[in-house]
Amino acid sequence: MAALARRPIIQLVMNGVEEDARVRRTARSLRDAGHLVRYIGFTAESGRAGLVPAPPLDGIERLLLRVPMEHPLAPLVPHEARGTRAFWSLRMLALMRSVLALEPALIHAHDLAAFRFIAHAASLAGVPVVYDAHELERGVHRPLWSPLRLRLHAASERLVIGRAARVITVCPSIADTLAREHRIERPLVLVNSHPRAHVRPGPPLRERLGLGPDARVVVFAGAITTGRGLELLLSLIPQLPPQLHVALLGTVRPHFAPELERLMDALNADRARLHHLDAVPYEDVIHTLWGADVGYNGIEATSDSLAHALPNKFFEYAFAGVPILTSPGESVTPLVSQYDLGRLCPLTREHVLAALVEMTSKPHVPSGRERFIDDFCWETQERTLLALYDELLAPR
After folding, report:
1. pLDDT given at position 84
2. I need a surface site. Which of 46, 64, 161, 352 has the fewest CB within 10 A?
3. 3-state helix, strand, coil in the chain (%, to 5)
4. Are 204 and 290 in contact (CB under 8 A)?
């Protein structure tokens, strides 16, 4: 391998790495291809700004950028402006220099916050940066943000996206939108799918729940929170046939816990038909979903980003052979029809109730499942990723 490629490939991420399967998949693929990879995340712990070591993850070296939150300028900056390029660059000049002092061959910045932090400094230093847009940032769903902060967030992407050596994103519709609106080369698409090794048959989900052979199970996998159509799904349980159960697989977000408890209390005697399974390791999700009758993907398109969403659960359901009941969306709609993966359904009580009754009474086998796995498994995505790195790291 060229000497350039033995300099570190930095996976830069603002949020925690442990729960971000996309970041970890990317890092492992690059490492297994022979690249020297480092994770760099952020921590708000007190102390002098700079790099501090953290325990390795996946056998990959890990560093944290310490970001002291007691910065003296903080009280002088409006809350809505914190997090914009101008403010963060003032606070983080030393941290940018710390990253570049590692002499990276390339920086892979996951999400806009990480990209705009390093984009200008890396460009001046001649270090290529890959911008990995995990969602449509100009239409992000941030209910607690003010309109001003949302506008500043969108503007910050417009200001820096031209600094990227290449842009990657998670679905074709977001790639088309970014190319059109920013007049850039169409981003490469790497979907949030699993490797083939994770497609392992398991006992039917109803057996894991201790249910009999006549039971039918509708499953939801992922973060149990708002915007997922869960309020609608749970409120329908009393109207569903008695043999139909609902299972939630994932972690309840703290802000949603009171609402979930209220919904459960309202079920009264039907509460026994609602089951909650704790989150399982990423590699075991498909195995756990095996044998469910319907996979529920009720995305509430309350923002442009959610309207384009192509979430992990969509691939997990399909890879497990579970028919998908999904709300329409820019990304999911063409895939459902092209690969016969399930049914599109508006998020209304009448439509969802009718669809659940029909799908659980007349089992559907997704006929395009094997073709879908071939086209979208991580091994297929990995080839695209490694070809990009070969191109960017080639001697010039």
Report:
1. 41
2. 46
3. 45, 20, 35
4. yes
Question: 51 pairs with which residues across the strands?
Answer: 65
What span, in angstroms and rounded, lies between the C-alpha atoms of 236 and 353? 7
81: domain range? 3-193+377-393
201 φ/ψ angles, rounded to the nearest 5 degrees = -60, 150
- Give the pLDDT score at 146: 85
CATH number at residue 334: 3.40.50.2000
Dump pLDDT digits (tens) for 250-294. 999 999 999 999 999 999 999 999 999 999 999 999 999 999 999
Instruction: Mark whether 140 and 261 lie in a shared domain.
Output: no
Structure tokens at 315: 């691939």
Amino acid at 305: S
In degrees rounded to 5, what are phi and psi of residue 74?
Answer: -55, -45
Taking phi over 0 as left and psi of -120 to 50 as alpha, with beta for the rest, 24 belongs to alpha
3-state secondary structure 231-284: HHHHHCHHHCCCCEEEEEECCECHHHHHHHHHHHHHHHHHHHHEEEECCCCHHH
Q: Determine the Cα–Cα distance for residues 294 and 325; give it in Å rounded to an integer.
A: 7
Residue 396: which residues within 8 A CB-CB, separation 6 or more?
Answer: none
CA-derived radius of gyration, the chain: 22
143 in Cβ contact with 225 (< 8 Å): no
Same domain as 77, residue 27:
yes
pTM above threshold 0.70: yes
Sheet with 37-43, side-by-side order of all strands: 50-57, 60-66, 37-43, 9-13, 106-110, 129-133, 166-169, 188-189
* Number of domains present in the structure of the chain: 2
Pair (303, 161) in one structural domain:
no
HSE-CB for 219 with a 13 A CA cutoff? 34
Residues in the chain: 396
DSSP letters of 111-122?
Answer: HHHHHHHHHHHH
CA–CA separation, 342 vs 344, rounded Å?
7
Contacts of 191 (CB under 8 A, 6+ apart): 170, 171, 310, 315, 376, 381
326: Cβ contacts below 8 Å, ≥ 6 apart:
296, 297, 298, 299, 314, 332, 336, 342, 343, 344, 345
